[in-house]
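Subject: for your reference before the review

Hello V.,

The reviewers asked for a structural picture of the protein, and I figured it would be easier to keep everything in one thread rather than splitting it across files. Below is the amino acid sequence we used in the manuscript, unchanged from the supplementary table.
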Amino acid sequence: MFRPKVPTMPQPTGLVTPPALIEPTTVIQQHTTQTPAPAPVVAPAPARPTVQLTPGAVIALVGSGTAVVLVVGAVLVSMLLAVAITAASVAVCAVVVRSLLASEGKRR
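And here is what came back from the structure prediction:
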C-alpha cells in the first residue's frame, strides 16, 4: 500500500520485427571546431513600480494590525470563558443530581 507502483512497459501491438544486426565498423574521428549557438535574446522584464510606504500608511498598517490582534484575542478569551462557565454549571448540576439520588436511597 505504501510502496510506489512502477508502471510496466506496454506490450507492442501489431507486427513486430526484430532489430537489425549492426556490424561493427571503425570510427574515424574528425576534429572540427564548432561555434556555440548564440544565446537567445531575452526581453528585459517590465519595470514594476516599487511600493513606497508613507509614514501615514505605516501608522495605519500598525494600527489596523493591532486592532485585528485585539479583536481576535477578545473573541478567543470569550470563547474560553464560555467553555469554563459551561463546565462549572455542568459540575454543579452533577453534584445536585448526585445529592438527590443519595437522599432518595436513604429514605427507603
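For the response letter, the relevant points are probably these. The mean pLDDT is 82. Helices lie at 55-107.

Happy to draft the paragraph if you're swamped.

O.
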